[in-house]
Amino acid sequence: MRASALVEFKKNVSTNRWDIKICTYSDMRIGPFGLLTLTERIQDLKLRRPEESEDLDILLEQGLLVEQQLIKVTNNQLLKITTELVERKAKQLSSFEI
Predict the structure, then answer these.
(1) How far apart are CA 3 and CA 19, in angstroms?
(2) CB contact set of 37 (below 8 Å; sequence gap of 6+)
(3) 48-74 pLDDT tens trace
(4) What is the distance between the alpha carbons of residues 93 and 98, in angstroms, rounded to a whole number?
(5) How far are the Cα atoms of 8, 54, 93 from residue 3, in angstroms, in the given order?
(6) CA 87 distance to own-chain centroid
């Protein structure tokens, strides 16, 4: 993992830009075949990139901080967002008329 990516992610933890936090957190939860918890996602990455294990540990630590920040300010139960839930909501949105 590039050092600049870790530096950039650390900035996301301390920013007041919630849009960046939400996008970063969402991106971190996406695995090859659907949504994962942050811990599951990092474990998956470690299997595929063992040489980046230390950087991934830092990324997980920072990601969990962002997750806690988001949990404090949202009504959504972030840890209960699953692939199935997202697929169901996407289907509902596809029939939404403007």
Answers:
(1) 23
(2) 29, 79
(3) 999 999 999 999 999 999 999 999 998
(4) 11
(5) 9, 11, 38
(6) 17
Q: Which two tokens stand for residue 95?
A: 């029939």
Copy the structure tokens of residue 36.
């994962």
Extract the tokens encoding 68. 């806690």
Measured on CA atoms in the order 19, 73, 35, 96, is the torsion positive or negative? negative
Q: How many CB atoms lie within 10 A of CB 28?
A: 22
State pLDDT tens for residues 10-53: 888 899 999 999 998 999 999 989 999 999 999 999 999 999 99
pTM of the model: 0.81
